[in-house]
Amino acid sequence: MYEGYITDIKGIKIGHSENLKAGTGLTVLIPPANNTCSVEVRGSAPGTRETDLLDPINSVESVNAIILSGGSAYGLDAASGVMHALEKDGLGFDVGVCKVPIVSQAVLFDLAYKDWKIRPDEKMGEIAYKNANENENRQGIIGAGTGATVGKILGMENAMKSGLGSASIKVKDLIVAAIVAVNAFGDIYDYEKQSQIAGPKVDGKILNTLDIMPKTMVDFTSFANKNTTIGIIATNAKFDKTRLKKISQMAHDGFARSINPVHTGFDGDTIFALSTNEINSDLNLVGALAAKVVSRAIANAIYASTSKNGIKSK
């Protein structure tokens, strides 16, 4: 698949930082000024930072950075590094005495993948910020996708490796793009091909989680808070926070098309929606394309992470 990348939108920078040995990392998106941003959280086990301010009823319209990170709640430390770097560059919300960088973040659980004692921290956040550029286009086992896995109902020993995926769709001057770190409890599907591409794997065969759930005496509580798919939708169309909230809601349909089951009590599924406010477009069109591009990005995360050139599951 591999069609496009979120940096196809002018002014958006992406930076990664990871520890491959420990199996964790983070991805930071640095948007242009005068952006607007909102968010929709649908999983029941989220780990987030500065998401309340993105509610349409609250005053702050723009963000200075969005972080997708491993490390579970520990990974929220990475925001401090990004904040300090933004402060040095004189960026943030002007409060008179200083400028306060607005850094929103969502985390996923990768502590069970390799070394749980090493998580994204302030230093890793600084590195990701310094690495951010408009030409980044890598996918797979990188950044927030470094420790991502899917299909975990039979334990980590039967889970499949996942990672970070991105895609974009262009319609004349309109661009809608997504970047997603896929760390789901459930199985992954290529929606356009109508085929399952990842899930619990036993003896080389990919199984179906929904077939296993009613037949197996599994202590499902052991999976609580250990998953989560997190992503960012971006567009160059002009939208306020209220409309971006709706777009982020529609974008979750992309999760539903490509992850099954999804939005469970074991997942903290979260999608940010960001606009660079360059052209006029229709809310319904952008929302529909957002769902489509999220679905593509999820499939790309699997393809890039399990390719011959990728780092395969341990």
Detailed description of the structure:
With 314 residues, the chain is of the alpha+beta class. Helix content is 21%, strand content 28%. It is built from five helices and 19 strands. It has a five-stranded mixed β-sheet. The chain has a five-stranded mixed β-sheet with strand order 3-19-17-12-11, with helices on one face. The protein is globular, with a radius of gyration of 18 Å. The two termini are 25 Å apart. Residues 308-314 have low confidence and may be disordered.
Topology:
Elements: E1 13-19, E2 24-30, E3 36-41, E4 48-49, E5 65-69, H1 78-88, E6 93-94, E7 99-100, E8 103-107, H2 122-131, E9 149-150, E10 160-161, E11 164-171, E12 174-181, E13 187-190, E14 195-198, E15 201-202, E16 205-206, H3 209-212, E17 230-237, H4 241-258, E18 259-260, E19 270-279, H5 283-305
Parallel strand pairs: 5-8, 17-19
Antiparallel strand pairs: 1-2, 2-5, 3-19, 4-8, 6-7, 9-10, 11-12, 12-17, 13-14, 13-18, 15-16
Helix pairs in contact: 1-2, 4-5
